[in-house]
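> call design_seq(struct)
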């Protein structure tokens, strides 16, 4: 979630909105920056363990950055 909020803050808008939802048993996190058009955060989001998908788009309301995250706990490997 920090990557999504940081991306919205870079847009230098006056406000951001954070939305959480269930999507097919996974967590959907959407951050709306209300301004901006950058796309540089996607590589970082895709590298986060548990990220099923991510994206960004713009609308009349501003830029949306989103990620769908697995709700399963990461597996640890035994040494």
């Amino acid at each position: 979630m920090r990557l999504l909020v940081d991306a919205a803050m870079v847009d230098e808008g006056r406000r951001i909105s954070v939305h959480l939802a269930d999507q097919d048993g996974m967590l959907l996190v959407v951050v709306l920056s209300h301004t901006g058009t950058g796309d540089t955060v996607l590589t970082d989001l895709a590298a986060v363990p548990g990220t099923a998908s991510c994206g960004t788009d713009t609308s009349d309301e501003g830029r949306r950055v989103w990620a769908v995250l697995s709700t399963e706990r990461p597996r640890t490997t035994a040494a």
